[in-house]
């Protein structure tokens, strides 16, 4: 329990009375120490958080209002939390001008009656401060033990961060060496508005390339601390909550940072080796050696997601700074999410129900991600190709499912990939014709293609002789330089008419 004016006032052994009409909250300001002085300006000997005691020798019986206002303003500006004014020594009462001045600057004025010894008040507060420090030290030692126990569990880095968040009742964010926020499932994260402020200062810290810490007032006095050695920073730990961290809380964060630095360094070589194993497991799956791949994954990596699962391709993501480190953290349960590099891409196997993590990762990192469902007993290679195709179609920051791509059909895919431009190029020779003739040739070609190239049904549908239809198609072949006796040419003409905006 910290020392406050309220604690002092609640003790019946002291004849104290608050004279200022102020919000009760001012009485809960922590008192860091008690000092006594009758100087007109005692601030050179005071520190923020001090409670000042005086017998009023610096004031006349009825002090000037401006003099009292300047005195109280100076104390409050220096961080003094209250003024104890002794009566029955020099003054029979606390001068009203001092009370009014205290109210104006939210400085509580407390009357000390009956010649109560200042030393008793000082000793009382000192005992509370000492007891509070002892309690915080005991809390810190127990918290450090909890963090140390967490560090030796599987996935120690995540465990110590979870423990830190729980013990402090605070949000915790971990950033990589380039300032990217790492996603840690189950860890309480910073509010959205706060994260923007914190992210900006994280990047400022990393730009210094030296071990440092920083408090962010705009983010509720969140504490930022670099992880790793100067010139070899591994990231930044950010911690914040409703209240700024006290010294014990900051000491606990320093302990966690030290353990995190060790954990990251220890994991670096191991993770490099494990990434190679994971890449090999994916290659075996793509080659159809499912049983062998699962045996290796079970023995060396902790397993794979059970079929059916989602296969995702993160296009060109292997060089994304910090991404592999983040996946190492979020892939701590390979039966939920399994990741591996493959060339320039990153492949992920995601258990059913865990797809939201992939969508969040894509949005946060601006990745183009394609997915395909891998059914039980199916070969993975075709599903991988489908996911890769969907990734090529996905805009940055989004996840595109192959099923959505397939529902659009081949024509829909071609239309979205610039088919209309190519169609206009192919049909451009028709633009030189008069509009009526151009429309007649286009309509004749459409009807003929819809009749599967049968002359008589197409001619009847157009209301013309089949020889007339042949003449029109021959003219079209010459203009477009197509041999419509081949299926490929017919398909190309059909697609061009389908994509052409003015075709009817």
Mean pLDDT: 86
| Strand order in the largest sheet | 1-5-4-3-2
How many helices in DSSP terms?
A: 18
Q: How many beta-strand elements?
A: 15
Largest beta sheet, briefly?
5 strands, mixed
Low-confidence stretches: none
Helix content range: 40-55%
Helix/strand/pairing category: alpha/beta
Proportion of strand residues: 15-25%
* Rg, Å, rounded: 38 Å
Which term fits the overall shape?
elongated
Straight-line distance between termini: 83 Å
Key words describing this protein structure:
504 residues, alpha/beta, five-stranded mixed sheet, five-stranded antiparallel sheet, 15 strands, 50% helix, elongated
Tell me what you see in this structure.
This protein is an alpha/beta fold and 504 residues long. 50% of the residues lie in helices and 16% in strands. It is built from 18 helices and 15 strands. It has helices at 5-10, 65-77, 96-104, 118-151, 156-168, 192-208, 247-286, 290-301, 323-330, 355-365, 380-393, 402-407, 409-416, 419-426, 435-450, 455-462, 466-480, 487-499; strands at 16-18, 33-36, 50-54, 82-86, 109-112, 171-175, 181-182, 213-216, 222-229, 232-240, 309-314, 337-342, 345-351, 368-374, 398-401. The strands form 3 sheets. Strands 1-5-4-3-2 form a 5-stranded mixed sheet. It has a 5-stranded antiparallel sheet with strand order 7-6-10-9-8, with helices on both faces. Strands 12-13-11-14-15 form a 5-stranded mixed sheet. Helix 14 packs across helix 18 (487-499) and helix 16 crosses helix 17. It starts with a helix and ends in a 5-residue tail after the last helix.
């Amino acid at each position: 329990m910290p020392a406050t004016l309220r604690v002092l006032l609640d003790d019946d052994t002291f004849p104290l009375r608050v004279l200022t009409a102020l919000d009760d909250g001012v009485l809960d300001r922590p008192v860091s120490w008690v000092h006594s002085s009758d100087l007109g300006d005692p601030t050179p000997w005071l520190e923020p958080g001090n409670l000042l005691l005086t017998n009023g020798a610096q004031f006349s019986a009825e002090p000037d209002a401006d003099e009292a206002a300047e005195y109280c303003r100076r104390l409050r500006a220096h961080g003094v939390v209250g003024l104890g004014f002794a009566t029955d020594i020099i003054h029979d009462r606390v001068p009203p001008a001092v009370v009014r001045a205290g109210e104006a600057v939210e400085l509580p004025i407390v009357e000390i009656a009956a010649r109560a010894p200042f030393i008793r008040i000082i000793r009382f507060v000192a005992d509370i401060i000492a007891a509070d420090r002892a309690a915080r030290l005991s809390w810190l030692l127990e918290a450090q033990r909890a963090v140390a126990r967490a560090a030796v569990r599987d996935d120690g880095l995540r465990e110590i961060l979870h423990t830190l968040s729980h013990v402090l009742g605070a949000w915790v964010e971990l950033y990589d060496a380039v300032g990217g926020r790492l996603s840690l499932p189950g860890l309480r994260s910073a509010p959205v508005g706060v994260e923007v402020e914190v992210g900006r200062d994280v990047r400022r810290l990393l730009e210094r390339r030296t071990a440092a810490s920083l408090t962010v007032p705009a983010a509720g006095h969140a504490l930022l601390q670099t992880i790793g050695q100067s010139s070899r920073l591994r990231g930044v730990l950010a911690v914040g909550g409703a209240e700024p961290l006290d010294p014990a809380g900051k000491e606990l964060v320093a302990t966690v940072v030290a353990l995190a630095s060790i954990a990251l360094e220890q994991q670096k070589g191991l993770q490099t080796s494990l990434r190679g194993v994971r890449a090999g497991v994916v290659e075996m799956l793509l080659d159809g050696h499912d049983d062998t791949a699962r045996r290796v994954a079970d023995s060396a990596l902790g397993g794979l997601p059970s079929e059916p699962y989602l296969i995702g391709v993160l296009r060109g993501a292997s060089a994304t700074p910090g991404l592999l480190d983040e996946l190492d953290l979020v892939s701590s349960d390979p039966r939920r999410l399994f990741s591996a590099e493959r060339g320039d891409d990153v492949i992920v196997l995601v258990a059913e129900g865990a797809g939201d993590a992939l969508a969040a990762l894509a949005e946060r990192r601006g990745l183009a991600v394609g997915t395909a469902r891998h059914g039980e007993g199916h070969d993975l290679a075709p599903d991988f190709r489908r996911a890769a195709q969907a990734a090529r179609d996905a805009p940055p920051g989004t996840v595109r499912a192959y099923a959505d791509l397939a529902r659009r059909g081949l024509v829909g895919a071609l239309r979205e990939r610039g088919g209309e431009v190519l169609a206009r190029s192919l049909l451009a020779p028709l633009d030189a014709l008069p509009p009526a003739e151009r429309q007649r040739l286009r309509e004749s070609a459409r009807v003929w293609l819809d009749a599967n190239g049968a002359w008589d049904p197409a001619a009847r549908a157009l209301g013309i002789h089949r020889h007339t239809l042949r003449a029109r198609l021959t003219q079209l072949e010459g203009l477009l330089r197509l041999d419509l006796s081949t299926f490929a040419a017919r398909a190309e003409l059909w697609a061009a008419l389908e994509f052409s905006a003015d075709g009817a």
